[in-house]
Amino acid sequence: MELRCEGCAGCCVDWRPLAPDAAGSDRTGDRPPLDDAYDLVPLTRDEIAAFLDDGLADALVPRLFEPAERDATVSIDGVEVAAARGRPVFVVGLRNPPKPVAPIGTDEPRWLDACVFLDPTTLQCRIHGDDRYPRTCATYPGHNLELDAETECERVEAADGGDRLLDDEPPDDLPAPPFGPQALGSTVFAYPDPDALDGVVDRVRTDSLTADDRARFVGAAVGSRPGSLSVDPDRMAEARARARDADSWAGRAIREWTERADGDGDRSDLDPGSCDRLARELEDDAGAPGTPGWD
Fold it and tell me: Pfam families under this entry (predicted)?
Protein backbone atom coordinates (compact mmCIF):
# COMPACT_ATOMS: atom_id res chain seq x y z
CA MET A 1 0.00 0.00 0.00
CA GLU A 2 1.10 3.55 -0.66
CA LEU A 3 -0.66 6.35 1.23
CA ARG A 4 -0.30 10.12 1.47
CA CYS A 5 -1.00 10.90 5.13
CA GLU A 6 0.37 14.42 5.56
CA GLY A 7 -2.28 16.84 6.78
CA CYS A 8 -4.97 14.14 6.85
CA ALA A 9 -5.47 12.22 10.11
CA GLY A 10 -8.68 10.82 8.62
CA CYS A 11 -8.25 7.50 10.43
CA CYS A 12 -7.16 9.16 13.70
CA VAL A 13 -9.87 11.83 14.08
CA ASP A 14 -13.64 11.74 14.30
CA TRP A 15 -14.33 14.07 11.40
CA ARG A 16 -18.07 13.39 11.21
CA PRO A 17 -18.77 16.94 12.48
CA LEU A 18 -16.73 18.32 9.56
CA ALA A 19 -18.21 16.20 6.77
CA PRO A 20 -21.11 14.08 8.06
CA ASP A 21 -22.09 12.89 4.58
CA ALA A 22 -18.56 11.84 3.66
CA ALA A 23 -17.39 10.38 6.97
CA GLY A 24 -17.98 6.69 7.34
CA SER A 25 -18.24 4.48 10.37
CA ASP A 26 -16.15 1.74 11.89
CA ARG A 27 -19.29 -0.18 12.82
CA THR A 28 -18.24 -3.17 10.75
CA GLY A 29 -20.25 -6.35 10.83
CA ASP A 30 -23.62 -6.79 12.47
CA ARG A 31 -22.76 -6.02 16.09
CA PRO A 32 -23.01 -2.26 16.72
CA PRO A 33 -20.87 -1.05 19.62
CA LEU A 34 -22.56 0.51 22.63
CA ASP A 35 -20.32 3.58 22.45
CA ASP A 36 -20.07 6.25 19.77
CA ALA A 37 -16.28 6.38 19.45
CA TYR A 38 -15.10 6.65 15.83
CA ASP A 39 -12.45 4.30 14.42
CA LEU A 40 -11.62 2.65 17.73
CA VAL A 41 -8.36 0.72 17.34
CA PRO A 42 -8.76 -2.87 18.66
CA LEU A 43 -5.62 -4.03 20.41
CA THR A 44 -4.24 -7.52 20.86
CA ARG A 45 -3.79 -9.03 24.31
CA ASP A 46 -0.02 -8.66 24.00
CA GLU A 47 -0.37 -5.00 22.98
CA ILE A 48 -2.64 -4.30 25.94
CA ALA A 49 -0.15 -5.96 28.28
CA ALA A 50 2.69 -3.91 26.78
CA PHE A 51 0.81 -0.64 27.29
CA LEU A 52 0.14 -1.75 30.85
CA ASP A 53 3.83 -2.50 31.40
CA ASP A 54 4.70 0.98 30.10
CA GLY A 55 2.32 2.63 32.55
CA LEU A 56 -0.07 3.63 29.75
CA ALA A 57 -3.15 1.66 30.77
CA ASP A 58 -4.98 4.96 31.32
CA ALA A 59 -4.85 5.45 27.53
CA LEU A 60 -7.04 2.35 26.99
CA VAL A 61 -10.82 1.94 26.86
CA PRO A 62 -13.15 -1.08 26.45
CA ARG A 63 -15.91 -1.52 23.88
CA LEU A 64 -18.97 -3.71 24.32
CA PHE A 65 -21.47 -4.63 21.61
CA GLU A 66 -25.16 -4.96 20.90
CA PRO A 67 -25.99 -8.53 19.93
CA ALA A 68 -26.44 -9.60 16.35
CA GLU A 69 -29.29 -11.87 15.35
CA ARG A 70 -28.90 -15.31 16.94
CA ASP A 71 -26.11 -14.07 19.21
CA ALA A 72 -25.94 -15.25 22.78
CA THR A 73 -26.61 -12.38 25.18
CA VAL A 74 -26.27 -11.39 28.80
CA SER A 75 -28.20 -8.65 30.57
CA ILE A 76 -26.28 -5.77 32.16
CA ASP A 77 -28.28 -2.86 33.62
CA GLY A 78 -31.32 -4.33 31.89
CA VAL A 79 -29.64 -4.15 28.48
CA GLU A 80 -28.89 -7.24 26.39
CA VAL A 81 -25.28 -7.21 25.19
CA ALA A 82 -23.42 -9.65 22.96
CA ALA A 83 -21.98 -12.50 24.98
CA ALA A 84 -20.30 -15.88 24.85
CA ARG A 85 -21.42 -18.50 27.38
CA GLY A 86 -23.01 -15.85 29.55
CA ARG A 87 -20.01 -13.52 29.50
CA PRO A 88 -20.11 -10.14 27.75
CA VAL A 89 -17.62 -9.93 24.90
CA PHE A 90 -15.49 -6.83 24.49
CA VAL A 91 -12.42 -5.38 22.85
CA VAL A 92 -9.93 -2.87 24.22
CA GLY A 93 -8.81 0.12 22.18
CA LEU A 94 -7.17 3.53 22.42
CA ARG A 95 -9.04 6.44 23.99
CA ASN A 96 -10.11 9.39 21.83
CA PRO A 97 -10.22 12.66 23.79
CA PRO A 98 -11.27 15.94 22.15
CA LYS A 99 -8.35 17.95 20.78
CA PRO A 100 -8.10 21.18 18.76
CA VAL A 101 -7.07 19.88 15.35
CA ALA A 102 -7.23 21.09 11.75
CA PRO A 103 -7.31 17.85 9.72
CA ILE A 104 -8.08 17.13 6.10
CA GLY A 105 -7.34 20.56 4.69
CA THR A 106 -9.32 22.62 7.23
CA ASP A 107 -7.80 26.02 7.96
CA GLU A 108 -8.61 26.54 11.64
CA PRO A 109 -8.59 24.18 14.63
CA ARG A 110 -11.81 22.63 15.85
CA TRP A 111 -12.49 20.45 18.84
CA LEU A 112 -12.71 16.94 17.45
CA ASP A 113 -12.28 13.57 19.13
CA ALA A 114 -8.83 12.31 18.20
CA CYS A 115 -6.59 9.38 19.10
CA VAL A 116 -4.76 9.93 22.35
CA PHE A 117 -1.45 9.44 20.51
CA LEU A 118 -2.17 11.92 17.70
CA ASP A 119 -0.08 15.09 17.97
CA PRO A 120 -2.65 17.82 17.19
CA THR A 121 0.09 20.10 15.83
CA THR A 122 1.83 17.83 13.30
CA LEU A 123 -1.13 15.43 12.81
CA GLN A 124 1.32 12.56 13.26
CA CYS A 125 1.18 9.57 15.57
CA ARG A 126 3.49 9.87 18.56
CA ILE A 127 4.14 6.13 18.60
CA HIS A 128 4.28 5.49 14.84
CA GLY A 129 6.91 2.87 14.05
CA ASP A 130 7.93 2.11 17.64
CA ASP A 131 7.25 -1.08 19.60
CA ARG A 132 3.87 0.17 20.83
CA TYR A 133 2.47 1.05 17.41
CA PRO A 134 -0.69 -1.12 17.14
CA ARG A 135 -0.90 -3.80 14.48
CA THR A 136 -4.31 -2.45 13.44
CA CYS A 137 -2.78 0.94 12.63
CA ALA A 138 0.30 -0.50 10.93
CA THR A 139 -1.80 -2.59 8.54
CA TYR A 140 -4.56 -0.07 7.80
CA PRO A 141 -6.30 -0.02 5.32
CA GLY A 142 -5.16 -3.50 4.28
CA HIS A 143 -8.19 -5.41 5.54
CA ASN A 144 -10.56 -2.89 3.97
CA LEU A 145 -8.83 -3.33 0.62
CA GLU A 146 -8.86 -7.12 0.94
CA LEU A 147 -12.62 -7.06 1.60
CA ASP A 148 -13.26 -4.37 -1.02
CA ALA A 149 -14.65 -2.11 1.72
CA GLU A 150 -14.42 1.67 1.66
CA THR A 151 -11.39 3.15 3.42
CA GLU A 152 -10.99 6.36 5.38
CA CYS A 153 -8.50 7.38 2.69
CA GLU A 154 -11.25 7.23 0.07
CA ARG A 155 -13.71 9.05 2.32
CA VAL A 156 -11.19 11.84 2.77
CA GLU A 157 -10.70 11.99 -1.00
CA ALA A 158 -14.47 12.23 -1.45
CA ALA A 159 -14.52 15.16 0.96
CA ASP A 160 -12.04 17.03 -1.29
CA GLY A 161 -9.09 15.98 0.81
CA GLY A 162 -6.80 15.32 -2.17
CA ASP A 163 -5.23 12.06 -3.28
CA ARG A 164 -4.64 9.80 -0.28
CA LEU A 165 -4.88 6.16 -1.37
CA LEU A 166 -2.11 5.98 -3.95
CA ASP A 167 -1.91 2.18 -4.15
CA ASP A 168 -4.90 -0.06 -3.44
CA GLU A 169 -3.14 -3.43 -3.31
CA PRO A 170 -3.29 -5.02 0.16
CA PRO A 171 0.05 -6.34 1.44
CA ASP A 172 0.85 -10.03 1.02
CA ASP A 173 1.73 -10.42 4.71
CA LEU A 174 -1.56 -9.03 6.04
CA PRO A 175 -2.29 -10.60 9.46
CA ALA A 176 -5.61 -12.17 10.37
CA PRO A 177 -8.38 -9.60 10.95
CA PRO A 178 -9.03 -8.51 14.55
CA PHE A 179 -12.47 -10.15 14.50
CA GLY A 180 -13.14 -13.77 13.67
CA PRO A 181 -12.90 -17.25 15.18
CA GLN A 182 -9.17 -16.89 15.81
CA ALA A 183 -9.66 -13.62 17.73
CA LEU A 184 -11.14 -15.08 20.93
CA GLY A 185 -8.81 -14.36 23.81
CA SER A 186 -6.46 -12.47 21.48
CA THR A 187 -8.40 -9.35 20.42
CA VAL A 188 -11.94 -10.29 21.47
CA PHE A 189 -12.36 -11.06 25.16
CA ALA A 190 -15.11 -12.21 27.52
CA TYR A 191 -15.59 -10.59 30.91
CA PRO A 192 -15.84 -13.41 33.47
CA ASP A 193 -18.20 -11.76 36.00
CA PRO A 194 -21.07 -9.80 34.39
CA ASP A 195 -22.69 -9.27 37.80
CA ALA A 196 -19.78 -6.96 38.69
CA LEU A 197 -20.60 -4.57 35.83
CA ASP A 198 -23.55 -2.69 37.29
CA GLY A 199 -23.76 0.78 35.75
CA VAL A 200 -21.17 0.09 33.07
CA VAL A 201 -23.55 0.11 30.09
CA ASP A 202 -24.82 3.59 30.91
CA ARG A 203 -21.29 4.88 31.46
CA VAL A 204 -20.14 3.34 28.16
CA ARG A 205 -22.97 5.07 26.31
CA THR A 206 -22.34 8.43 27.97
CA ASP A 207 -18.54 8.27 27.63
CA SER A 208 -18.20 8.47 31.40
CA LEU A 209 -16.35 5.28 32.29
CA THR A 210 -14.36 5.53 35.49
CA ALA A 211 -10.72 4.58 35.89
CA ASP A 212 -11.88 1.48 37.76
CA ASP A 213 -14.27 0.56 34.92
CA ARG A 214 -11.48 0.73 32.36
CA ALA A 215 -9.08 -1.13 34.64
CA ARG A 216 -11.56 -4.01 35.05
CA PHE A 217 -11.56 -4.68 31.32
CA VAL A 218 -7.82 -4.19 30.90
CA GLY A 219 -7.31 -6.74 33.66
CA ALA A 220 -9.68 -9.24 32.05
CA ALA A 221 -7.97 -8.83 28.67
CA VAL A 222 -4.48 -9.31 30.09
CA GLY A 223 -5.68 -12.30 32.10
CA SER A 224 -7.29 -13.96 29.07
CA ARG A 225 -5.92 -17.06 27.43
CA PRO A 226 -5.68 -16.89 23.60
CA GLY A 227 -8.12 -19.21 21.87
CA SER A 228 -10.43 -19.61 24.86
CA LEU A 229 -12.87 -17.86 27.18
CA SER A 230 -10.82 -18.63 30.28
CA VAL A 231 -9.35 -15.81 32.37
CA ASP A 232 -6.67 -16.34 34.96
CA PRO A 233 -8.10 -14.66 38.11
CA ASP A 234 -4.74 -13.87 39.68
CA ARG A 235 -3.30 -12.35 36.50
CA MET A 236 -6.54 -10.44 35.98
CA ALA A 237 -6.50 -9.00 39.51
CA GLU A 238 -2.84 -7.99 39.31
CA ALA A 239 -3.31 -6.31 35.92
CA ARG A 240 -6.47 -4.56 37.09
CA ALA A 241 -4.66 -3.07 40.10
CA ARG A 242 -1.79 -1.83 37.95
CA ALA A 243 -4.17 -0.38 35.37
CA ARG A 244 -6.17 1.44 38.04
CA ASP A 245 -2.97 3.05 39.36
CA ALA A 246 -1.75 4.24 35.95
CA ASP A 247 -0.99 7.96 35.81
CA SER A 248 0.78 8.57 32.51
CA TRP A 249 1.25 11.71 30.42
CA ALA A 250 -1.46 10.30 28.14
CA GLY A 251 -4.04 9.94 30.89
CA ARG A 252 -3.29 13.39 32.28
CA ALA A 253 -3.51 14.91 28.79
CA ILE A 254 -6.89 13.25 28.23
CA ARG A 255 -8.21 14.88 31.40
CA GLU A 256 -6.81 18.29 30.45
CA TRP A 257 -8.08 18.18 26.86
CA THR A 258 -11.52 17.06 27.99
CA GLU A 259 -11.79 19.91 30.49
CA ARG A 260 -10.86 22.45 27.79
CA ALA A 261 -13.06 21.05 25.03
CA ASP A 262 -15.71 23.42 23.76
CA GLY A 263 -17.99 20.97 21.98
CA ASP A 264 -17.27 18.55 19.17
CA GLY A 265 -17.20 20.24 15.79
CA ASP A 266 -17.43 23.78 17.16
CA ARG A 267 -14.80 26.18 15.93
CA SER A 268 -12.16 26.48 18.61
CA ASP A 269 -11.61 29.91 20.09
CA LEU A 270 -7.89 29.09 20.01
CA ASP A 271 -5.77 30.34 17.16
CA PRO A 272 -3.28 27.86 15.62
CA GLY A 273 -0.37 29.34 17.57
CA SER A 274 -2.21 28.98 20.86
CA CYS A 275 -3.17 25.41 19.98
CA ASP A 276 0.48 24.57 19.27
CA ARG A 277 1.55 26.01 22.61
CA LEU A 278 -1.21 24.14 24.42
CA ALA A 279 -0.24 20.86 22.74
CA ARG A 280 3.36 21.34 23.85
CA GLU A 281 2.24 22.12 27.39
CA LEU A 282 -0.24 19.26 27.80
CA GLU A 283 1.61 16.58 25.84
CA ASP A 284 5.24 17.30 24.90
CA ASP A 285 6.24 18.94 28.18
CA ALA A 286 4.37 16.22 30.09
CA GLY A 287 6.53 13.47 28.59
CA ALA A 288 4.85 12.57 25.28
CA PRO A 289 7.22 11.23 22.61
CA GLY A 290 7.81 13.61 19.74
CA THR A 291 7.01 13.21 16.06
CA PRO A 292 9.57 13.23 13.22
CA GLY A 293 7.78 15.65 10.88
CA TRP A 294 6.97 14.99 7.24
CA ASP A 295 9.58 14.28 4.58
Answer: DUF7531
Q: Which residues contact 241 (CB under 8 A, 6 or more apart)?
A: 215, 219
Q: Is residue 17 part of a domain?
A: yes
User: Model confidence over 147-172: pLDDT tens digits?
Assistant: 788 888 888 888 778 899 888 888 77
- Residues near 134 by Cβ (< 8 Å), separated by ≥ 6? 41, 43, 44, 47, 94
Structural domain count of the chain: 1
Enter the pTM of the model. 0.93
| Domain membership of residue 179 as a residue range | 2-284
Tell me, yes or no, whether 198 lies in a domain: yes
